[in-house]
UniProtKB/TrEMBL annotation:
Upper taxonomic lineage: Bacteria, Bacillati, Actinomycetota, Actinomycetes, Micrococcales
InterPro entries membership: OPRT, PRTase-like, PRTase_dom
Species this chain originates from: Brachybacterium ginsengisoli
Names of the cofactor(s): Mg(2+)
Binding site residues for orotate: 145, 173
GO biological process terms held by the UniProt record: 'de novo' UMP biosynthetic process; pyrimidine nucleobase biosynthetic process
Magnesium among keywords: yes
Stated name of the protein: Orotate phosphoribosyltransferase
Subunit architecture: Homodimer.
Broadest EC class assigned to this enzyme: transferase
Length: 199
């Protein structure tokens, strides 16, 4: 049997890839202690998924696990691109792009980056990458607490004329995010629940 720590993410059975990524998130991303969150709320733990999405072993597993989620939920094949609000969403999107190119069972996915503010020079684009206008996309995020960040991305995508098939996050941190995203009319999917991280 392949060693999940050294085998290419693509060659692992999905259950092994999912469990290995869960262990990496638990061991490398969970930080206990007082923290101020993006929303301004305070908490006693943080899940720093940038330590996962930019990690040599974990990043390919992120792509594999998130692509599998989109396939199981019937979104791939079907969508054409993934992306979200910079910075947390960026490596999530590119990991899925690479996993989809390696998977080869459907058309490869593009990625995009939603800027937090419009760029004032150059082409002044809010959404970078291949154009999303008229394309079916999934808005991704590393983690979601209030849902505010991913909804900001959704608003920019709608303004740009994209068709949002769903929102997908690696770690679902709070029911508030699901409620907010669903109230805005979007499907909400998560690869892991915070309860799986043994905090
Ligand atoms: O659901 P929310 O309440 O919006 O919180 C979640 C957001 O917080 C973090 O990003 P952060 O705002 O710290 O910015 P960064 O991605 O630029 O690091 C995380 O990457 C999510 O985007
Ligand atoms: O709400 C947030 O800002 C937040 C929570 C968390 O666990 N991780 C993170 O990156 N952001």
């Amino acid at each position: 049997m392949a060693d999940p720590r050294t085998a290419p993410a693509q060659s692992l059975p999905i259950e092994d890839a999912r469990e290995r990524l869960r262990v990496l998130i638990r061991d490398l991303a969970v930080v206990r202690g007082h923290v101020v969150l993006s929303s301004g709320a305070e908490a006693d733990h943080y899940v720093d998924l940038r330590r996962i999405t930019l990690h040599h072993e974990a990043a390919p597993l992120v792509g594999r696990v998130m692509l599998d989620l989109l396939q199981r939920e019937g979104l791939v094949p079907g969508i054409e691109a993934v992306g979200g609000l910079t910075l947390g969403a960026d490596p999530v999107a590119t990991s899925i792009l690479h996993a989809s190119a390696a998977d080869g069972t459907s058309d490869p996915l593009d990625a995009f980056v939603v800027r937090k503010a419009n760029k004032a020079h150059g082409l002044q684009r809010r959404i970078e990458g291949p154009d999303v206008t008229g394309r079916r996309v999934v808005a991704v995020e590393d983690t979601s607490t209030t849902g505010g960040s991913v909804l900001t991305a959704c608003e920019a995508l709608t303004e740009a004329g994209a068709d949002i098939a769903a929102v997908a996050v690696i770690v679902h941190r709070s029911e508030a995010s699901r409620e907010t995203v669903e109230a805005a009319g979007h499907r909400y999917l998560a690869a892991y629940d915070i309860s799986e991280l043994e905090i």
